[in-house]
Amino acid sequence: MVSTPLPEDYRSGFIALIGRPNVGKSTLVNQLVGEKVAITSPVAQTTRNRLRAILTTDLAQMVLVDTPGIHKPHHLLGQRLVRSARSAIGEVDLVLLLLEGCERPGRGDAFIVNLLKQQPLPVLVALNKWDKVPLEQQDAAEAAYGELLAETSWSMHRCSALSGEGCGDLTAVMAAKLPPGPQLYPPEMVSDQPERVLLGELIREQVLLQTREEVPHSVAVSIDRVEEMPAKGKGAGRTAVLATVLVERKSQKGILIGKGGQMLKTIGQGARLQMQVLIDGPVYLELFVKVVPDWRSKPQRLNELGYSEREI
Ligand code: GDP
Ligand code: MG
Predict the structure, then answer these.
(1) Separation of CA 225 and ligand 1 centre (Å)
(2) Does ligand 1 have an atom closer than 6 angstroms to the CB of 160?
(3) CATH code for the structural domain at 11-177
(4) Residues 214-232: tens digit of each pLDDT
(5) What is the pTM of this model?
(6) Would you state the CATH architecture of domain 195-304?
């Protein structure tokens, strides 16, 4: 492979995406990288693993660290997520603080702003979901956030992670804030997570989307096998994925399977379609549901599922 030399002032570094749950961090990661690497959903606290997404341009390589939202911990899992978001601040070159432009600033925002004021890294602020702010309210919304950030020198940028509006400008400002440095990852790489993890996340996303309030946070997915199927016979040329969805209670298993297995079928179909895009080929997916009481409070279970102390 012939690679063109990078410009002398090429920049690179790590950027932590920080913000309350549901402000659109994962959506922004996908928008910036141009591929679905992070799962998103209307349910808060979707993101569990700390995912690194890589955005390479002619001027810079930006490694985006999508952190779980900072919030009040309830479970052991919650505590680990918060610790992870906080520790991310210590490992990056720049913080991108996402705020929900379409809502007025609240106490949660003030909490995060205070946290960030106490550390030395440069901070950029994205006012996300700007597509939801009516034109006549835009100035007032920006003024309210200006007040929240009054004692800082952080610059504010309007954007919509969903439509992509403002995201190009945001990329340019982020790149300019990074220190000079070489590419840290191959330029074609968009995520540091193995495919297996991404596949599991696509299933978890469908569970969250389809079951909404009933099951959400007590779900984990383990990918048991990923295999190429033989070139001949039934399912020829497909990638077979065998996965188990873990829930905490028997009642949740019932909801997930649904009447006559209908819910699990819908979840499986949705996940399979997304997997086919990721893998770029036909997928055969088999899903199982297993009850593991209280898995969220068991350190060993969390480790097995990849939410280890070190990683998250
Ligand atoms: P996270 O918890 O911060 O990672 O938030 P997600 O990326 O999972 O997004 C939460 C919800 O907000 C999803 O339903 C997204 O589709 C939605 N969302 C994210 N960004 C935008 C945006 O710019 N505009 C609108 N209208 N919705 C958005
Ligand atoms: Mg997220």
Answers:
(1) 31
(2) yes
(3) 3.40.50.300
(4) 675 678 888 888 887 777 7
(5) 0.71
(6) 2-Layer Sandwich (3.30)
